[in-house]
Every structure is written in structure tokens, then in C-alpha cells.
Design a protein that fits this description.
Bound molecules: flavin-adenine dinucleotide
Shape: elongated
Structural class: alpha+beta
Number of helices: 12
Number of strands: 24
Length: 402
């Protein structure tokens, strides 16, 4: 770091010089700063929060689902589905796993390729800070970023009462999900300030709310069952959970990222049942009721049976009615009236348009020296460690280019 004095008018202001300033010390910013620092760049990492990596600390129930071994471009949503390919190929889950292992952090696969720390997410933050220290990164927290300007090929940042300058600036301030943790739309404001487009941000990996006829299902709050949930062309086989506001659980969070207002979400309540299972049940157990024939939690089975309005024994129903009931259970249609919003969204879909960025370096095509990484960019991963993998990969790509 060097310093010089700005042109003296009323008072001389110290300006500290770096090769790169990274705004946002979350997953992507920490990775980017560490990589650039270890390449010999003088890096300043700034965050308005009182500590770095706050979302890492709360992630995965405090154990940080830090990657997914099945990461592939199709596990991300973006206006340009090809954009993430380059960065993901150059920094794969194996690279992050190698880093975790070098730091002696024990981990395990929980399910579906999701890797979690055995101990605590704190280990991941400590690891990233250690990597930053190895790169001589200057990490500063707990002050607001008051102003960012750009002139003569230099970015100037006022952080609290101090002024910093560098020829490179990285936007790594994430998206607005969970505002009570200090998350904000700052990245978008900054991007717009520099003429970059922003794809309309929307809450993703978020519970859906039910209204109208579907409010009855809210009485099932707490009931969970494995389903196949669909929104548009996306389908996920995981658990769904009824809540006092509507629908949640991994299957619902996954489809919420694809769901658009006004569209239905369909649920296959018995994804493993063979076609014709209800007629078979009628033949095998004609005295059974529909509710008792459903291999589902009791309260859910009763609610679905009531909705299907087939009272009495299966043996008393026509085959036609039972075939119709089976078809409805396979494609039960909910029409969510909204989501629980950014307050409950695990991530933000949309963000800084990838059309404005180089997929190799994450640099803005129209503003040399300006980069954007992580969740701030219009790349959103599925639930299960994919979002951190994008943060690591995009942060690494920019860190290599700075
Ligand atoms: C509850 C929860 C659990 C999650 N669990 C997982 C998980 O297990 N696995 C997974 O892959 N993903 C998980 N995610 C998603 C993951 O946390 C994010 O995708 C990831 O943190 C994005 O990294 P980022 O660096 O882009 O942004 P962030 O990690 O959000 O970092 C942004 C940083 O910028 C700072 N900042 C914001 N505004 C400003 C400003 N105006 N000035 C200065 N600094 C600012 C913030 O303080 C923050 O430190 C979870 C998210 C939540 C909310």
C-alpha cells in the first residue's frame, strides 16, 4: 500500500493506494482478494459489516454446505445459461475441497453431493482469512462505503472517513436476501452507476405462500413428505413442508427459483407409486378408504382425500373416479400467491447482467478495471452448496485476472 495526498483545497486528505479494492468480504470477495493477494497484488478488502463472511457463518445450519460435487452449469439459473461455464470449469469443487483439506478441515457428504464441515462454518471463514493474510490483503470492516467514483483510470472509494484508490474495483457485495444481516442492493446501485444493466432481482430458494382455496393446506403446518415438485420445466424430488404461510422444504425452495408470479406449482405426492396403484389398492383392499390407502402422513392424507371428495370405501368407487384421483395426486396444482420475500430468501436470482461481463475474468466489458463476482451477478445456484461454488469460482476468476 502506498499513500499520497489529494489536491489540497480546504484540507489535505490522505489517499491510500492499492492495485485492487474488493467491496464486500463475503464468500466471493474473500476468495477474490486472497487469490489476487497471493499473486502479488496489493489488495484492500472492505465490508460495512462488523465481521467478514456473515452468511458463511450462518450457512448450512452453522456447518456451511461449502460445495456440491455434482456442480455443473445446468445447476445454475441465469439469463445466459452459458456464462458460468468458464469460471466453474477453471475452479471446480475439487479445487475448493483441496483447499479445505490443506487447512485440515474435516467434512462429510450429507446428501445429494452436498459437502458440509464436520465442525463449524467458522472454520471456512478462518481458512479464507488465513488465505487473505498469506496474500497480504488489507481487510477492513465496520464502516459504510460512502462514495465510489471513477476518473483517469482510477476508482476512488470513501470508506468511513478514509479515502482509498486503485485501478481495479471488484463488486462483491452480494444480493439483498436477508436484509437484517446487512444484505443490500448496493451492488446493483453501483453497477447502474457505471452503466451496467441489472436483471430484475427476485427472491429465490424461498418459501411460497398460499391463499384462496389453498389456505386450508396451511392447517397442515409442520407436515413434511417426499414429493416431486415442478415449476415450469424444472422438477425436483426432495421433501416438501407445509408451513403456516404455505409451502417450504427443499423441493419447494428449489422450484421457487424457477417460479414466476401467476404460475402454478405442481406436486406429485406419490412419486414412487406405480401407474394404476389406486385401482390395484381397490382390488386388494376394497374396504379401505382413500385416506388410509395413501402412503402419506395422516393429516396430509386426510386433507387430500377430503379435497378429492371420494368418501367411503374404495370398493364403492368407480374405476374412472379412482383413475382421476390418482391423476390429481400425481399433478396436484397449487397456485402460490407469492413468496416470503427477500427476508426469507436464501439467495437472490437476477442481478448484474452477465451480458455486461467477461465470462473469463468477470470484468465489465465497458469499464476496464471494474469487476463483479458472486451473488451480485445474475447467476443463481440450486440449493445444496452450488451458490458457494459459484462464489468461489467467480471470485477466483476475477482474482486471477486482477
Ligand atoms: C441462511 C442462509 C444459508 C445459506 N446456506 C448456504 C449453503 O449452505 N450453501 C451455499 O452454497 N449457499 C448458501 N447460502 C447462499 C450463500 O450464502 C450466498 O450465495 C453467498 O454467501 C454469496 O456470496 P457473496 O460473496 O456473493 O455474497 P455474501 O456472502 O452475501 O457477501 C457480501 C458481503 O458484502 C457486504 N456488503 C453488502 N452491502 C455492502 C455495502 N453497501 N458496503 C460494504 N459491504 C457490503 C456484506 O456485509 C457481505 O459481507 C445461504 C444463504 C443464507 C441466507
Amino acid at each position: 500500500m502506498g499513500w499520497r495526498s489529494q489536491s489540497c483545497t480546504d484540507a489535505c486528505v490522505a489517499v491510500f493506494d492499492y492495485d485492487a479494492i474488493v467491496l464486500g468480504a463475503g464468500a466471493a470477495g474473500l476468495m477474490c482478494a486472497a487469490v489476487a493477494g497471493q499473486r502479488g497484488r496489493r489488495v484492500l478488502l472492505l465490508d460495512h459489516a462488523d465481521q467478514v463472511g456473515k452468511k458463511i457463518l450462518i450457512s448450512g445450519g452453522g456447518r456451511c454446505n461449502f460445495t456440491n460435487i455434482y456442480t455443473r452449469p445446468e445447476t445454475y439459473i441465469s439469463a445466459n445459461p452459458h456464462f458460468a461455464k468458464s469460471a466453474l470449469a477453471r475452479y471446480a469443487p475439487a479445487d475448493f475441497i483441496a483447499l479445505v483439506e490443506r487447512h485440515g478441515i474435516a467434512y462429510h457428504e450429507k446428501t445429494l453431493g452436498q459437502l458440509f464441515c464436520d465442525g463449524s462454518a467458522k472454520q471456512v471463514v478462518a481458512m479464507l482469512l488465513d488465505e487473505c493474510a498469506r496474500g497480504g490483503v488489507d481487510v477492513r470492516c465496520g464502516q459504510p462505503v460512502r462514495q465510489v467514483t471513477h476518473a483517469d483510470g482510477r476508482f476512488a472509494v470513501r470508506f468511513g472517513d478514509l479515502d482509498f484508490a486503485a485501478p481495479n474495483l471488484v463488486i462483491a457485495t452480494g444480493g439483498p436476501s436477508i436484509p437484517k444481516m446487512g444484505a443490500s442492493g448496493f451492488a446493483y446501485d453501483l453497477a447502474r452507476q457505471f452503466g451496467l444493466k441489472v436483471v430484475e432481482p427476485r427472491p429465490a430458494l424461498v418459501p411460497l405462500t398460499l391463499g384462496g382455496d389453498d389456505v386450508l393446506f396451511r392447517e397442515l403446518s409442520g407436515v413434511a413428505t417426499p414429493v416431486e415438485a415442478r415449476a415450469g420445466k424444472a422438477a425436483f424430488r426432495e421433501a416438501a413442508l407445509f408451513t403456516h404461510k404455505g409451502l417450504s422444504g427443499p423441493a419447494i425452495l428449489q422450484v421457487s427459483s424457477y417460479w414466476r408470479h401467476g404460475e402454478p406449482v405442481t406436486i406429485d405426492f406419490l412419486p414412487d407409486a406405480a401407474p394404476g396403484w389406486l385401482l390395484d389398492a381397490k382390488r386388494a383392499r376394497p374396504r379401505a378408504t382413500l385416506a388410509s390407502a395413501l402412503a402419506l402422513p395422516d393429516r396430509l392424507a386426510q386433507t387430500l382425500a377430503d379435497r378429492l371428495a371420494l368418501p367411503g370405501e374404495l370398493g364403492a368407487q368407480t374405476d374412472r373416479k379412482l383413475a382421476d384421483a390418482e391423476a390429481r395426486l400425481k399433478r396436484w396444482t397449487f397456485r402460490p400467491n407469492g413468496t416470503e420475500g427477500f427476508a426469507k430468501a436464501e439467495v437472490t436470482a437476477g442481478g448484474i447482467s452477465t451480458a455486461n461481463l467477461s465470462s473469463q475474468t468477470m470484468m465489465a466489458k465497458s469499464v476496464p478495471g471494474l469487476y463483479a463476482v458472486g451473488e451480485a451477478v445474475d447467476v443463481t445456484g440450486w440449493l445444496g452448496g452450488y451458490n458457494f461454488q459459484w462464489a468461489w469460482a467467480s471470485g477466483h476468476a476475477a482474482g486471477q485476472a486482477l
